[in-house]
Amino acid sequence: MPLVWAAIPGFTIDKACPLPLVFLSDARDLRRHALAALDAAGREASITVQPDAVGLRAVLLAGLAATILPRPAVAPPLTPTDVALALPPLGEIAISVYRGPAAKTGARTALAEALLASVECDF
Predict the structure, then answer these.
(1) What is the SS3 assignment for 48-100?
(2) Phi (first) and psi of residue 64, to 5 degrees
(3) Residue among 44, 55, 4 at smallest CA distance from 20
(4) Which of 3, 30, 48, 60 is the most exposed place for a label (fewest CB within 10 A)?
(5) 54 φ, ψ to 5°?
(6) Are 82 and 5 in contact (CB under 8 A)?
(7) Selection from 109, 71, 110, 87 nearest residue 35 by Cα
(8) Can you name the residues that pair with 104 across neighbouring β-strands?
(9) What is the pLDDT of residue 113?
């Protein structure tokens, strides 16, 4: 999945200041992608880490920071902001769906199929 910078519409930054970013505390891979892209572009960042999704969402909705997400995970009111903020391109991240033998029927199968369809992968 392609990664994109995401924030609320109208989020702005002073290019002379570090880019404020927020991530979940277990999102090491996403932080690595963000910092690698910013390092390559010679940009600095300040990072806030939130222990849960509620805190992450609160920081984003308050317009205090941006984050990076897989493109299909960006949903209103968040929007991709890489072009508007002249941020460097990001890489891609692998997304996997695992299901055990018991998951071959019912709601679990429907969920797995919906997830796969939403990211438009060929499997």
Answers:
(1) EEECCHHHHHHHHHCCCCEEEEEHHHCCCCCEECCCCCCCCCCCECCCCCCCC
(2) -90, -15
(3) 44
(4) 48
(5) -65, -45
(6) yes
(7) 87
(8) none
(9) 78
First to last CA, the chain: 14
Closest CA to 44 of 65, 16, 67: 16
Both tokens of residue 74?
Answer: 């960006």
pLDDT at 5: 96
pTM above 0.85, yes or no: no
- CA dihedral 75→17→56→5, nearest 10 degrees, is 30
Write out the two tokens for 84.
């508007």
Q: Which residue has the tokens 């060929």?
A: 122
Tokens of residue 59, six digits: 């920081």
Residues 52-65: tens digit of each pLDDT: 999 999 999 999 99
